TrEMBL record:
Protein name per Swiss-Prot or TrEMBL: Putative regulatory protein, FmdB family
Domain Putative regulatory protein FmdB zinc ribbon: 1-43
Top-level taxon: Bacteria
Source organism of this protein record: Desulfosporosinus lacus DSM 15449
NCBIfam families (UniProt xref): CxxC_CxxC_SSSS
Pfam families, per the entry: Zn_ribbon_8 (PF09723)
Length: 71
């Protein structure tokens, strides 16, 4: 199951929940104010690139591991 962020329309608090893809937040309760009916937010994700992994892909010598210096 993926982790989603839900926002409270009452106080603006953000709650992170592990839930099914189809869950929309209507049954969730805000951790800050107790309001029900949270709104699902679109969140970003991160992934290890070639420089962050153990591979020897197309990184420049001296890559620091975050790919900012080699791409």
């Amino acid at each position: 199951m993926p982790i989603y962020e839900f926002g409270c329309p009452s106080c603006g608090g953000i709650t992170t929940e592990l839930c099914k893809i189809g869950d929309n937040g209507e049954q969730l309760r805000c951790e800050e104010c107790g309001n029900t009916g949270l709104i699902k937010h679109i969140s970003g994700f991160s992934s290890l690139g070639i420089c962050g992994g153990a591979g020897s892909g197309s990184c420049s010598p001296g890559c620091s591991g975050n790919c900012a210096g080699c791409h």
